[in-house]
Amino acid sequence: MPATPAYPPHSAPRLYVDVELSEGAEIRLDGSHAHYLLKVMRIKQDQPVKLFDDRTGEYLAHVTMVGKRDLILLIDGKTRERENVPDLWLLAAPIKKDRYNWIAEKATELGITKMIPIQTQRTQNTGIKPDKLRAHMIEAAEQCERTALPELEPLIKLEALLDSWPGDRHLFFADERIHESGAGSFRKALVAHAGPAALLIGPEGGFSDVENEMIRALPQSVPVSLGPRILRADTAAVAAISLWMAGRGDWNG
Ligand code: SAM
Question: Sorted alphabetically, which keywords does the UniProt record give (predicted)?
């Protein structure tokens, strides 16, 4: 007897749509969504599509009309509520475009709530394109089955952000200089600091001495080491998020 097909079918394409969804509603897709379903996934009449709206949750729909450049889907039912992701922000100084898009993608997969590009003294690439970055975050959320999208804030100067830092949020400051002092154990920092958190990752050139002092002067800042080796900023971002998620996040740690 054929195995009962998984419900919703794992293979069904999954898309984020920026409209509030509900059971029984019809939705017309065109533009990049239609191109993806028609040209890439070669979707057919009656085939299933998973949709999420970053407001109410995830739904299963099926195709009722296939046009040349658009489709109509009927929403059959809700499959999942919008998730509560752990309260973690990523503050990362922009680096080369592709690698910064990569950070945004991986940070979304790993489960952050918000990403804030930080302009520091040694930040070279300030030409980040928020739309492109957002598109990478949405694609990553579609693929990793998130039902809540991370927020993306506009680029902000480090000192401006520190001036208005929320009192209840710990700032885990990835400091490549702290390891040799023997301090900065990330594991111990996680044990000691529960609650809303943020990770601060510097540019390729690192933070200047003035910035280092400014960050350390913030009562909520917690300098942490990511080991004795100097990691590239994108590696450091993924390592730090993974450590926090395993220790304080939703990885059943
Ligand atoms: N300026 C540094 C240097 O050349 O010595 C390297 C900066 S590193 C490429 C970029 C950022 O990654 C750093 O500002 C820091 O936030 C983080 N990072 C890299 N390695 C680290 C480590 N071993 N421990 C803590 N943070 C690290």
Answer: Cytoplasm, Methyltransferase, rRNA processing, S-adenosyl-L-methionine, Transferase
Quote the pLDDT of residue 253. 65
Using the mean position of ligand 1's atoms as its centre, give its distance from the Cα of residue 2 in Å.
53
Pocket of ligand 1 contains residue 223 by CB under 6 Å = no
Distance 105 CA to ligand 1 centre (A): 20
Rounded to two decimals, what is the model's pTM? 0.93
Is 88-247 assigned to CATH 3.40.1280.10?
yes
pLDDT of 2: 47
Spacing, Cα 15 to ligand 1 middle (Å): 36
Of all protein residues, the one whose alpha carbon is nearest to atom 27 of ligand 1 is 176
CATH code: domain 9-81 is 2.40.240.20
Any atom of ligand 1 within 6 Å of the Cβ of 95: no
DSSP characters over 66-123 = E-SS-EEEEEEEEEEEPP----EEEEE---SHHHHHHHHHHHHHHT-SEEEEEE-TT-
Q: Flag residues of the chain having pLDDT under 70.
A: 1-10, 125-126, 253
